[in-house]
Fold each of these.
Amino acid sequence: MRRHLLASTTALVVIMITGNAWAGMDEAKQFLDQEIGDVSTLSRADQEKEMQWFVDAAKPFQGMEIKVVSESLTTHAYESKTLAPWFTKITGIKVVHDVIQEGDVVEKIQTQMQTGQNLYDGWVNDSDLIGTHWRYKQVRNLTDWMAGEGKDVTNPMLDLKDFIGTSFTTAPDGKLYQLPDQQFANLYWFRYDWFNDPKNKADFKAKYGYDLGVPVNWSAYEDIAEFFTGREEDGKKVYGHMDYGKKDPSLGWRFTDAWLSMAGNGDKGLPNGKPVDEWGIRVDDHDRPSGSCVARGGDTNGPAAVYSIVKYLEWLKKYAPPEAAGMTFSESGPVPSQGNIAQQIFWYTAFTADMAKPGLPVVNEDGTPKWRVAPSPHGSYWQKGMKLGYQDVGSWTLLKSTPTDRAKAAWLYAQFVTSKTVDVKKSQVGLTFIRDSTIHDKSFTERAPKLGGLIEFYRSPARVQWTPTGTNVPDYPKLAQLWWQNIGDAASGAKTPQEAMDALCAAQESVLSRLERAGVQGDIGPKLNEEHDLAYWNNYAKEHGTLAPQLKLDNEKEKPETIGYDELVKSWNE
């Protein structure tokens, strides 16, 4: 019996040795040869230097299997199917990288936070949860992690200053809580060819008295939407606008993703308005959420917010295809590629690769797009210094409930898929930029003409106005689900825009009140203000040099303004 056990043990040792034997620089060089080549901002020597660090740092964790998760995007599919297997070959750490729906990611991370059960070792979790993570103290803050417990597994070539999204993943305490993995913005999308057609330009000028071009404000967007709706282009009846309106969770993203701030809701400030953010939530001097309704100094049901809902509904009804009102986010996404939409005010750049495929009605025979993207127009309440749109920043998050050795292994993988060695290739696949060096890589200068202005936008100073949900939101999962239900009532006609926003702010304050009573977020949790009228809070804002909540404008249709796209791009370069 002892002899049999000895033989089995010996066999196990042999398996373990051979199992680790293939993890090392030979595999790393194979990876660089087959997958990366010269598609990197690093020289081959520096690529090998970075890979050698991963090989060495991973040795204590060889043979370990870890699980990580992210939402279903092209970028994450590439990580899961291509980068994870290579990481395993190079380091000996087996990574199971699950790719699931965004809502499921939020639900599962909530479950781990509530139960302490370690469902995943690493999460690509939207930075929209930064206020949640900072207040609940259930994630490892990466600033302290990299300097302390995780120092031995922190890449010396990580170069945090090269990441363009760390201001979105840094809390008011100055600590970094999440590491960006992918980013995409919602921008204005339009048919560049139709806008430059001589007859369209002449007809528009004759009707509206100014030049057809990229709309700077909502008044111009509305005129352009009216102009193109019902017009014939390329043998088709076309529409001047595209959106979606089905009462579905994705309707909530449509609004929490900065629609109110584009209208002029909230205060000035980047990446988010302070003290009132784009959700209309006010915080006090200690960053404690103190109200959502105008009565408590918030702006969720203020004139700017209501105006934003009014315009959303009006444009959906008048200028979008009739079926748009019954569509979800994912159903509406491909519609502009079919060739009958003139412009879209709120278009996610995550669709860029799909919109640039050869053979589509919106792509020329030479592969260049017939469309372009540009900064979104702003509403009549918007003022210079406010954010102008949304940028999704999916970011690596390490929960404290994950055992340290597993968190270290996951952190190695997180750094591998965001490394300078890998990032240009990953960005060529997914077009979700996280590094400044990647955006300025020569490969994207060459590819830019086929991406409709995406590269020009990301290289421009304008990109800083596109930001995720900020730290004023104390519990993103609980609050976000309130939006689609209440705005859905406005979309269906069950409530007026004012009634819907009144109900939404009241529902948000109900959550804030429960958090305040429970005290679970300590001295940075909600502390609600006393109630006063709009005039009181507007005067309060003026006295303190802030903006929100604003009074209702006598005329919400400001003078329309447009700019030529080529002129806009030229101004960025200058």
Amino acid sequence: MASESITVLAARRELAMPLRGILHDWATLGLIGNAVVVDVDQLRTDTAEIPALLVGAASRMVCLQERLADSEIAVARLCVISAADSQSGIVDAAVARRLSEAVQTSLPYARLVKTSLAVGHSGAEFAAAIPDLIGWDALVLSPEDGLSPMHGTSELTNDPRHPQWHLHVAGNCCSILGLWRGQEDSVLDSRSAVSDGGASPVRAFTRSVAADTVEDDLRRRLLMVGERYPVPRVDTSSGAAVEDENASVTVMADALLREHSDVLPRARTTPPAPAPRPITFGDALRQFFTFMWAALKNAPHAFAEGLLRTASAATAAAVNSVVYGANSSLVVVVRGVRPDGSPASWDETEQGVEKALQDNDGHAELGAALQKPQLWRDYTAGALTLLDAGKRSSHLPPVTMGSTEAVVTTTARVAPDPADAFTLPAHIAAYLPNWKVEVADDIGAKRLHESLEKLSASNPQLAQEIGAEKHRLREWVTVNSASYVGQVGRTLGNAFRATVTELEELTQRLEQLRRAPAMTNEIEADQRRLAARFRILGGVSLLVVVALIGLALGGLLAIVFAVVLVVVSLFATVLSGALMYMKGQRSLYQFIHAQEQTASALETAERHRKEALQDLRRLIRAYRQYLDWSRALCAFVHAPLGRLQEAQEQELSIGQGLPRCVRIGVATASPDVVDEAAGRIRGELFRAGWLSDHWAAYISQAPASLGSLRYALQSDPGMLDQDANPDGAGPVLTRWSWAVAQAAAERPASATFLARAEELVAGTPGVRDKLLSLISFRDSDTGEMKVVPRAEFEGRLDGAEAQGGTFRELIFSPHARNIDARNVDLTRSQDQFNGLAHARVLVQFGPSLPRTDYRTSADVAPNHTRPPQQAGTFGESPRGWGFADTDTPSATPAVMPSADVDGF
């Protein structure tokens, strides 16, 4: 627990019990700060521990030393209060020193302000109640009921039947020790303790203004930026609101995706088709002999197949036989719907693509998906820049109008309200369960539209109602997709759908290419006809050669001439055969060229399909991360500053029964006044880039709903950028985004924002005075509720009129030697604020007088003895001490509350 100061009040039980009851009531109502009350009658000699009651909104018993040691304290105030009306109410000096040592030991570096306060009715024995303590500031207080030093007063008696005396003591203690809400310090902090052993009379007058309702109204107006953002201040001038919000968000979304274009599908490169290759005579001659041999073996088909294999061997090895349509896991990717009609999760979709990629690569292990944390930093930075004109990225600059930075003020133009998710009516949701489309989910909206169309076709009786839902869905998509978030999602969604369509087309292309015949019937017939011709040609050539040889052997033809004729005959046969082959195989070579093109197209389609699967995997991961960041971003944008807790002093009505020197009121301000005050400070409060700190605090949150994961995130915030899934229960980013989105609207208001607003209210001339111009209070005499200007409420506690006055005669001994004992020696005035809570406190001190100048037992007259204490006279009011729940005045003062607080 951190604090700058703490106040410890110690008294005997007869005074401590009513004091802690009063202080508890006031602290519960938020009128005073925390204090610690010690009943010195509870102290024991066998233990050093000092039991104490921590008085606050939830009072509880504590050990004084532990409570102090657990605090960061700059100033500690210890006030020992003795009741001068009876010997049993006086705190011994040794007890006071014990308390001082305990506080100083627990807070060795804090400045300790030590005060002893003797209180009693004006005829009490004050001299006996002033302890002999060196270094303590000794004060004497006799309750007197008066509005100001210059008003008349009436004496208050320490009588349990009239609790105003205890209320006066409590009120003066709060004023002197700086406990009222508006007080920043105590008048005693700068007062030096007298060293002559004397004591000074003291009295105080207080005007305390509670302003929680006005302050909360102002804060609420400043915090409510959900639907329309303020135009920020840029440097020394005001920014501007853009005129064309749609164009501005489009420019920002385009700039983001242009900077991170690698998240979108890659452009496909298609190599040129194989060009026709001319067949040279030499190639034809070689193939002729091969074909001739195949023809002689009656195997021309085998020759053609071998030629085709040789032509396509370079590409055929790179083509596998995986059929996309046969992979059932990809059905989820394409349609995004399970067999029962419910939407598939993005985890299922991503797993389907990864399985297809593994199958495509022969079940090879896939590498980790590439993360792009900078994309999402820029994505959120672009949204924040549109709203506050902050300069976060050189490639995502603020929108400008001329030379002035401008903002999109309509929140929904940047990020739709996450509460506007699209759901189906129950009777249609029965057919399509679990459909709830988030505002950023472009793909989900399109899939739901397709599912509605299929449902309409299969259920004609619902066609009209389904048509109405489709129309509502289209309008919903049109509105959301016009935002910055929606445009980024629409681009990613279009890329996803285009890639899926491309995969389907490539699948069909692959299947068509694989169905292409390896050999046509026409080619086979051509080969057989050509083989027959070659066999005839070969036979004729053989007969000619045999005839020539026979003629030569028969002497009918010269051998030399015969040899020449044989050679010429063979050459003619080869030449004519080659020419015949070239002409007869024209269709075969055309088919071979077509097969080469088919093989090349098959390889290209297979490569494109693999690239498309890789792109789809990247897009699915990016789109799921887009949904996660959009979920968190949309929730933040509509509640960037958190939510204000309800005011603690609603319908606060206080006053009757209090002494007139303590006046407590409540500031009252009309909505117009609050709006005017908010408008005057809004420019300085919302400066360009004001969202950055709030966004940083927001994304660093790890809500309790995350369970054990919150501790992992707190120790390693980089898990969000890595999109880890350490326990297999789902991506950390997804789980975190759901948690922070659900907690966004309920998180406490930003303390830094409220502190800055408070600073501006205090520093802007006239704002605070305008908000506190009217004060509502209950008149302590009549019980009537009044609304008066603040100057009238604080009445005569400033200026020269507050410097005079005298102390009551009967607190001094008739034998006092100081003729100025009754006169005011020093007046301390405080005019302080805590936020809008205001305290004007006037404390008057008399001169320091020796103990002998105060009334002693010898000076006390019989008619000034204290009334007997009656057992059981403390009241049971739960509010107590002059606080009324209604505006109906009471004929009698409120009674003292029960002193039993948390076990007392």
Amino acid sequence: MLKNMLILFLLSLSVIVGLANPASEDPNINVTSLDEILQIEKGFMTISTEWSPDVQYLLVTCSKSDSPSTNIVKHYLLDTNSHTFGEIDYGVHGPDTNGILQAKWTPSGDKICFEVSGYGPTGPGNCYIFCNSDGTNLRGVGTNYTDLSKILENRGDIGSQRNLKWSPDSSKIAFEWQKPGNASTGVFIANGNGTNAHELSSATYPQPAWYDSGKVFIVTDEGTVDLINESSDLIDTFQPEDKDEKYWGFSLSPDRKKILLVSGLPDSFDLHTYISDTDGSNLKGNVSFYDGDNPEDTNILTKEYWQPNGSLLLVNQNRNLYIVEGNENNKRLLYEGNASEPQWFPDGKKILFVENKNKLYSIDIDGTNLSFITNFGPTPSHSWYNSDKIDRFSIYSISPSGDVIVFASALNPDTGKFYKNETDKILESENDSSKYSSIAAPLFIVNCNGSSLTQVTPTTKGRFDMLRRWRPDGKQFTIESYSLYRTDWEDSLVDLNNQNSSSMWTNMTVTKIIEREDPATVGKAQNSESNSINTSQVTENKETTNKSPSFMFLQLFVCIMGVWLLHKAREQ
């Protein structure tokens, strides 16, 4: 009897140990594969993700190669509140969807917009499409087509539309439209639903941008930047100080009080920039310059960064940071060093930047409070990051709320620790893919003051994780994972506040999703497992008690053994 009691005690003790050491999951961070949520077919991969302005919905564009020249495209809508999802039905399916591009939201969030591009039966073309989020009330911008199959069939007759811009009040659009047979490109404006399109002007590369909801800036073939109204009347002209030069492009400040102008000689690739008020006053030069012989200077307007919702201009010239400010547009040195990848804080009061390719700092706009935040490791300078598939992603990204930063950093999968530049032999030959096939580059999050460094995605050899899109409130974001050992991409949804989040997703029609008043999360769906992993250099998070399948089996086993022991005791 004593022996049986001892066995029962040991089994009970094992239960207590199981409670003390449950299957560990980060209670605050949940990473869910979009493939699992969407029950996506084999061969499809995510092309883009776009959050709605009201943060409730996520648009996902997926594509699958059906032949060397044909893709099958699907758009999905996810309701992140009710955990429901569905495929948007435009009335075309399978190979007939070839040419449909990524779905985006209109600024008001009540419609979605996408392009159809490529060759149709009547020739090549590109057309913007507006419709409701369930695919209804569809229209080709500037056309009478309300059927997607007809638009796809008649792309060649429509011509090429591009460079769409929304007016400040989101009531109108301006876009470039080169119609079949026309040598020049027209600048058109239309209502926010794509109707009543009419031409304002034409040029080779007009690059339209709204000044206000009734006036548009364009670049002319004569090398000026003109401001015209809806009736095509000339309001103002910006012309280079040097009459031999031309303006090749421009950029407006978010508050539309200042304009940055790119100038250069017609036969030269050496360019420099001016800044002035949008009324033409206070013109200043020597803002930034582009060396035509420098491969890093091939893209203009990539060294200048406007203050969010303001008119201050941040300039990165020769790895030094400057602020252009005030009524006189004076240029002031903010930071001298080896700076790259600068970004404004969302409130426009501070700036983030990378020093010496792997150290993240913040600095106030007056040059004070220079603060070290975290070390990236060698990832930013690594050839893996500079590959064709990855260079469109930023090294790091700050949340819309301005309190959390997401970044990727290379880890040694064998130790779980950061590589160090001075000892990292893998980086000795950056162009040799075999060298970086053993590197893992998971995502991390860190508070903007440098605290609470936490690993988000697992440490996997040959895998690089990159942030795609922040949810506007900063509570979620989507990521894209590229692996050297796979031919496709894997996208995931990351929830930073997962305590009350359901792990169940329900498939239903998009019409029902957007009509639901009291969303419920019932039905067959997938369980979402957290992939969060903490390394020895990462701050540990508080753990919650989650009963794993093995622990529940142990409970059942103990109950059975208890009944058996009681039975044996009665027999004695």
Amino acid sequence: MFSTAFLDIPPLVGAAGTVQLPGSKSISNRVLLLAALASGTTTIHDLLDSDDTRVMLDALRALGCGIDAAGSTLRITGIGGQLKSNGQLLPLFLGNAGTAMRPLTAALSLLGGDFELSGVPRMHERPIGDLVDALTQLGCRIDYLGNPGYPPLRISPVDHGALVLDAPIRVRGDVSSQFLTALLLALPLAARKDIVIEVVGELISKPYIEITLNLLARFGITVRRDGWERFTIPAGSSYSSPNDIHVEADASSASYFIALGAIATGSSSQNGIRIEGVGADSIQGDIRFIDAARQMGAQVDSGPNWLEVRRGAWPLKAIDLDANHIPDAAMTLAVMALYADGPSTLRNIASWRVKETDRIDAMANELGKLGATVESGPDFIRVYPLAPADWRPASIRTYDDHRVAMCFSLAAFNPARVPVRILEPHCVAKTFPDYFETLFSVAEAAGIPVICIDGPTASGKGTLAAEVARLLGYHYLDSGSLYRVTGLAMRRAGLSADPQHEAQIAEMARTLPLHFAEGKVLLAGQDVSDEIRTEAAGMDASRVSTLPAVREALLTLQQSFRQLPGLVADGRDMGTVIFPDAELKVFLTASAAQRAERRHKQLISKGISTTLDSLRSDLEARDARDSSRSVAPLKPAQDARHLDNSQLSIEQSIDQVLNWWQEKQPFKSA
């Protein structure tokens, strides 16, 4: 997951391949709560791992559920509808997870304990008054701890004998389907007689209620439904574990890759996007996004657990759609509309305004940054397409809303080939932590940005490059490690860096079983990070780097690190030989005396005895050798920026490189 302040997506020109989607958030948190309320143990397969599910799991642990994770499965031992309470107030923090806050409010109101439910500031702006009103009709005791109608909440115990079950419980249908879902999931706890729920007005987001009813049936609760106006929970209902249950992949998450298949063409050898984990027969209402995508021109094939999507009509066809049945997935249509042949209108989307943010305003604001003309109202949005010349590079505010971030990544496929910046990309952790990695695995870029940081030994280029890469969310290449590992492998094989062994060493370099993970360098699974950082290993690296065949063998390996969204590479010839087309080249220098002092402190901290004079002599000798070698001598690229960090802190050096990088971007500083 990208945890950076922003993520720059370079212009993308195509996409093809296969993606595996994470589990559905809507199904995951419903299943978790039902398994917790049921008797027995439920084994859940393919559960979504996200912020929302972690929040729910934390709450269930606090309630006394047994939770055992093993790989991709989770075993939950439920409480059988009986709270294991010690009589003390239990505070539960639920983040920004509406799929946890709403159903837990209802369930805890009937479980008989003292609770405080709170969340992030945005959760305290998301209305819950209609659900609380419905529960207080029943006789539940719920108090607002802040603004009336909004969390945080205080829930007090109530005797089930005092509940009013004779009259129907009335709930508005035009606010949020999560309110009705919460009641349906919780009321079996109190069903000593039939409990009737009546919906006032038209019920929005009906497909989400279908999911709820389907899952209730899996856990032994058969709700009688009269149209969409009346639901009856039979007397004596009780939850029973289905023992095993599989979570479908998220149909809302599928929308981004369905749209991707409709927008992008692949290379000559591949075409289309295959989506695994969900099919057209999904129980999730958002799977009907397929119908909207087909209306816009996408070609979609499907099987029991997969979809294949290819570009059909181009430009896409404009649509005018009542999107009430696909409220979350419909956001993706608003970005697809930029590629259409006329204005597209999405109607009946009032629920967008009470989600993680006001999504109608958010989409209108950010689409406008791209250059689009947008009209919006209380329950609609109309998006006009963009001509190639009218696209603008935009820094997209995400409002801590995962779907805003994912939707706007599709704008990177624009025909003007301008990049898109996504602010706070980590918000996708709510439902799809690896979204951007998944997108990049199938996307093809017009060009992948590279920052090269070259310089002499002990100039600090490795520390600088690694931190710049972390802050930008880019891949990192420590080219010196490649040569050091090659030198280590050479020494282990009993070879020496001379012409007679050159071919053998080059073949060894070509097939190095090398892996970088969490700051470690692994050779055939063995951590050699410390072994390759010795002075002797550094000398071996310098020697093997002078062998032309070895350099050729490692050239392709180094260039393979150039992957989306970008790369920071450090070494001695990154900007001159390996990536001569890099967008930013930095030549980092420091005086030999300063470098010797830094290296001295480093070695002393490791318990290695040495002297400043010997270190300085070694560094000066290595500088002379590296700068005078016949193959790729150490020297700055002609267009390199020079950075002398003799008197700079590492933070100051990082800031300078990032400032130079920002100057080259078409976005305002972030």
